[in-house]
Fold this protein.
Amino acid sequence: MSQGALFATIFTVIIIIGGILIRKNKFYFGLQIIWTLLLICGNTYSDDFVGNSNLYYSSTFIDIHREGFFMSGYYYLSALFNKIGFNYIQFNALFATISTLIMVGIILKLSKNPCLTFSMFMFYPLTSSIIQKRYYIAMGLLVLGVYILSLNINKVVKTILYIFVISLACQIHTASIFFFTLIIYFWIPDKVKRYVSILGLIVMSVCKSQLASLLEKSDNASLSGKSSFYFVTLASSDIFHYIFWIGWHLLFVILIFYLLKKENVRLTLGENFSHFLWIINWWSLLIIPLYSFDPVFTRLFRVIIIFNYIAISNLFIIKNRKINILYFESGIYQILLSISSYVIFNSLAVGLPLMGVLIQVFENNMFF
């Protein structure tokens, strides 16, 4: 590892630790954002870089409707900015910055301890976001769409806004289509939501072959191509593989469910936000069956994780140098889980040694 990359790695760790200790400071939060943008926008090579770069340079205005409802926006923007004279790194930097700023705005709106929230994000899923470039651009829109559901406005208006924003996300990345299930789930009566999640988890796990076959036969080139790659090429039949990822997911949502049973937690977070968290975490169980194919589908859960981070950081309240032991333990639990997720995804799921991922993120950066 070069000296520049080593410095970047060490400085990133310092930035993360500082955010945990400082918790809320506008200047420091700005520093976190600037450093994160340098990492994301300056990356010049990673696993997905070549594929996305080739897609950018090969896109034409003729391709706009090639995949029907999906990817039209990305093809159009690629063709437009390529014609203007942007290279791929500049194009990705621009839209990754927009996506980041959307998420930053939502964190500032909801989090009482934004530095702590963002430090957890930097543990996980920052490195995955740097590598999976096109999904990261869509992720800002997905977070915005889910945030809309938390607003205390007319339910029909929320639904229309949500569908519009998720439709935009589908123009960037096909995986965004899964979030249309959330708006359906949103309208299901609360008293049966958990049963729908449990039943859906069981049925989708049992019928995963039929699900893969259905998507493979789709007339949409993007859906059929992606499903063939993820549901056949990368698919794992190892039951222990599936159990492992079920456990990983449940470690996140069980903490939220446990906390939401506490009246003082609901009062601290607010009844509206607490109810919103309850809904999106129960819905997230429907993502789990996709892990039976490949952990790449955990990218869907990252959107929910951001709101969980906000909730946990909002509980980290220190008064007179004292903190509620439950809140403290929950914060430590979440931080350790985020660190563990970083190690798991960057040394196991990606199939690379830990140092290999660090090199992808820090060595291949034009700023270091």
